[in-house]
Design goal:
This protein is α/β, with parallel strands linked by helices and 323 residues long. The protein has a single domain (12-20, 47-101, 121-321), classed as UDP-N-acetylmuramoyl-L-alanine:D-glutamate ligase (3-Layer(aba) Sandwich), CATH 3.40.1190.20. 33% of the residues lie in helices and 24% in strands. α1 (49-59) runs parallel beside α2 (74-85) and α9 (269-282) runs antiparallel to α10. The longest helix has 15 residues, at 287-301.
């Protein structure tokens, strides 16, 4: 699956949402409440779910536009430069006055697992007015990526702009929050982990990671009843499950096997998945094929420290797929 394959040029992707500076400290293990530990290194890296998703898709060769807000500070400059280096159009990123760029404080242990605390900063100034001001970015868009690190009113305004433009709307339900039914109806694909899926479906029991396809049918039915035709449920080291009511019979539920790697830092791996999924959907892949590609990209991202700098290009993903 070559993102730049002749005759299958990718359509435009629009990403709306957050840009953060990731303040990351590495430790042997994550601290317990009230505990102080020695750290083993500190970095400040470009991050934020939306910026990460845009960079991940851009590094895979997709045409990407990012809409968001940063402060007039060094972290904002760092983020704009990182995105531009991945060929992401940042003309829709506003530099906000009187507020700092958003930050995330990240702790990563020796197994690559992490904890994250996020402060919105300039992301909190993004409004539906910014969506209206960036209307030209949505023209001809094939895919729109959204998350919940900015206000729900802004997310819904973007979803409507994307739907009106004919884009496939991908909604990453993270950090988790209840969403209005109107936003669910505007979304084509819901991206969630198992815990988020259960929350969205009012406590619905999510099958065990090794469950066969029939066990996932009730989950798909509940999603459709909530207005979501498709979803990808990520299962961590167990891979993911694609639930697609629009697929042909026999392909409505597809298990995506995990890609085994030695994880160094899983921060932003989910965003790498979303960016890869968007890139392949924009290129015309079916949802299950796009998820298989994205799964490999996310795994490779976890083999290096940091987020955006760790994201692979299409050649690296294809090499692993064809190995």
């Amino acid at each position: 699956m070559d993102t730049q394959a002749p005759g299958n040029q990718p359509g435009k992707i629009v990403v709306v949402g957050s840009l953060n500076a990731d303040l990351t400290i590495y430790t042997q293990r994550l601290p317990s409440p009230g505990e102080t530990l020695h750290g083993e290194g500190f970095t400040v890296n470009p991050g934020g779910k939306s910026a990460n998703q845009a960079v991940a898709a851009g590094r895979l060769g997709a045409k990407v536009s990012l809409v968001g807000a940063v402060g007039r500070d060094a972290n904002g400059t760092m983020l704009l430069e990182s995105c531009a280096a991945a060929n992401v159009d940042v003309s829709g990123v506003r530099r906000a006055d009187g507020v700092e760029t958003g930050v995330a404080v990240v702790t990563v242990d020796a197994q690559g697992e992490n904890t994250i605390v996020y402060s919105a900063g300039a992301n909190g100034t993004l409004t539906p007015g910014d969506i209206a001001a960036s209307a030209s970015a949505f023209e001809g868009a094939a895919v729109l990526c959204l998350c919940l690190e900015v206000g729900l009113d802004t997310v819904e305004a973007a979803a409507k702009a994307g739907a009106d433009a004919g884009a496939k709307v991908l909604l990453n339900l993270s950090p988790y929050a209840s969403i209005p039914a109107s936003l669910a109806r505007l979304s084509n694909v819901l991206l969630v982990n198992a815990h988020e899926a259960s929350q969205f479906l009012d406590g619905e029991r999510i099958p065990e990671p090794d469950a066969e396809a029939p066990a996932w049918e009730p989950v798909l039915e509940r999603l459709v009843a909530r207005g979501l035709p498709s979803a990808v449920v990520t299962l961590g080291a167990q891979g993911s499950v694609v639930l697609d009511s629009t697929a042909e019979a026999g392909n409505r539920i597809v298990r995506i096997a995990p890609t085994r790697v030695d994880a160094v830092d899983t921060t932003g791996a989910g965003d790498a998945f979303t960016g890869g999924l968007a890139a392949r959907l924009a290129a015309g892949d079916a949802l299950a094929d796009a998820a298989a590609f994205a799964s490999v990209g996310a795994a490779l991202a976890a083999t290096k420290k940091g987020t955006q700098a760790a994201y692979p290009d299409a050649a690296a993903v294809n090499a692993r797929l064809n190995a």
